[in-house]
Amino acid sequence: MKNYDNVTIFNHPLIKHKIAILRNEKTSMKEFRELIEEITTLMTFECLREGVPTVECQVTTPLETCTQEMVKDNAIVIVPILRAGLGMVNGIHVLFPSARVGHIGLCRNEETLEPMEYYCKLPDGIEDKLVLVVDPMLATGGSACDAIGQLKKRGCKDIKFMAVIGAPEGVQKVAESHPDVPIYVSTLDRCLNENGYILPGLGDAGDRLFGTK
Asked: Which of 35, 110, 113, 158 is the most exposed, having the fewest neighbouring CB atoms within 10 Å of its CB?
């Protein structure tokens, strides 16, 4: 896969360790859910190293008063792509507990592999916020592109996308379709199979998060 200016692939040993456990078919639902949240927290820390709206405030320490930067209140909105994206929300809330949450529901047509939207509920004023779109699996890229497109139609200008596992095909599609959107992927896998699933992947993230088959 070629390099894209808007794509960051993490190469962190702690994330690699957690991904190895995440992939294992014997990993329990509870542990799988916890790992998704932990990896998301690590990714969010790096993803928001720059570009987070901040304000200056006065803080009184036991010794004196100083000027300090804080994240601007109500500046971030999390938008998980349903349903697997829900598994990443708590991992961001650990760092930004006041972040509002919108939802975009997309399902995949198993014949065309294209996304079909069935639900969209977003907070008022989202067009003025930093929007984090999250989905554990970036496979064909169709759902991510559609979700980002829906947000842009509603006036959102500051959008970042995060996925735990990405396929080269999906990363390329999103990077080229939305070159203005930074894309963060913790691990880049080999390819998609004939059914549009990531290899080696980790199976169906939604099923493993919520115990469905």
From this structure: 110
